[in-house]
Amino acid sequence: MARDNKLRSTPAVQFIQSISSSWKGYELFAIWIVKKLKPKVTVDLGFDMGLSTISFAHGNCGHTFGIDWLTDANFSRKRMAMESAFHNILNAIRLKYVKNLHLIIGPPTEISNKWNKEIDLLHIDCTQHYEDIQKQYEHWKPFLKKDSIILIHDVASFPSEIGRFFDELPLSKLLFTHGKGLGLATGNPSLCREIAEEWRF
Ligand SMILES: C[S@@+](CC[C@H](N)C(=O)[O-])C[C@H]1O[C@@H](n2cnc3c(N)ncnc32)[C@H](O)[C@@H]1O
Question: Is 88's C-beta closer than 6 angstroms to any atom of ligand 1?
Answer without folding.
Answer: no
